[in-house]
Amino acid sequence: MAKRIVFHIASLRGGGAERVFVLMANELASRGHDVTLFTWNAEGPNAALLSTAVHLVDFGLPLRGEGYGKWATLKGIVRSARLFNRLGPHAVYSAPEFANLIVALALSLARSRARFFPSFHAAASLPSGSLGARMAVWLSAPVAARTTKAIAVSAGVGRDIVARGFPQSKVVVINNPLPPAAISQEHSYAWQAKLATMGGGPVIATAGRLVPVKDHWTLLRAFAVLRTGRRARLVIFGEGPLAAELRSYAEQSGIGADVLFAGYVNDPAACYAAADLFVLSSTSEGFGNVLVEALAAGVPVVSTDAPHGPREILDEGRFGALVPVGDVATLAKAMAEMLDRPTSAAVLKSRAADFEVEKIGDRYEALLAASA
To answer: What is the DSSP letter of 368?
Structure first.
């Protein structure tokens, strides 16, 4: 039976959670459900991926850095409650974490009886007894109380939120979906032309926001070590506040001519098509969407053993090399070894099939019959 479903995401910027929710909204709408994607700001590259079968509600609130400001947030909660009253949804999915709190409050204010499925996309372990840990538990309480089932994108994230007070019985692990295979449109991009001018050697790629948690510093240092013994090129896809510092470091360390900062590219297929090896150097990953995308493209993978997604996706290292977080020498060695003896593309693609959007859609749809 078709249901009225709302997906709420804080914005449609270029993050992993945003893309996941667009994909899931599209998938459930394709199954005949009445689906609304509700956001406080619909600007961002993920808006272009939204199906015409999904209703879009955009509050158009101006973003201030990564948030909306105190007064805009309070007004947004009231407006959200009014929207839930008007739509009368059977179920509401939300992400990321602060949006989960917003939706829990708005549903309570609206006295909505909708099933509530907050999702958690980031590793959130905090030192026991710290102020941050106590705040996390306190803020989790109203979300946990209103939750029907909480979606953890990895088993590790599930353990995190249980440690913060969510009942184990309310937590379900549902991995993020692999985007549907894009139809080749034979676009050409400026970064491709630039890459072609950088000489020979295999192409190592990474993708993600240029922020501390992605630890591009370790990748650049490891690449510098690798370059002392062989030709190679590094392409960094993504934007973020550390862009200028990372560029400067690459130049000062003597690898600037072999490193391309390509910016955000809303065409993952083109990125992986250019790569001989994909590397993730994060210090923390709730899941790791880019790893699944690389596997699906048949691109060998090296990843830090960041909590929690990479080890789960790569099945303890069976489908890609895992190295300690922040270990420059071991990362450089693993990159060299994977370039010399890459994992079979067929093996990589077989693993990626476990995350196909239809399979993940089945899991999301099954929640519609869940009880608290």
So the answer is: G
| Tens digits of residue pLDDT in 56-107 | 999 999 887 667 888 888 999 999 999 999 999 999 999 988 899 999 999 9
Amino acid at 209: R
Return all residues near 84 (Cβ < 8 A) that are at least 6 apart.
6, 92, 106, 107, 110, 112, 114
**Can 4-177+356-369 and 190-355 be said to share one CATH topology?**
yes
- Say which CATH superfamily domain 4-177+356-369 falls into: Glycogen Phosphorylase B; (3.40.50.2000)
Number of alpha carbons in the 13 Å side-chain half-sphere of residue 312: 21
Fold for domain 190-355? Rossmann fold (3.40.50)
The structural domains of the chain, with segments of one domain joined by +, span 4-177+356-369, 190-355
User: What is this structure's pTM?
Assistant: 0.89
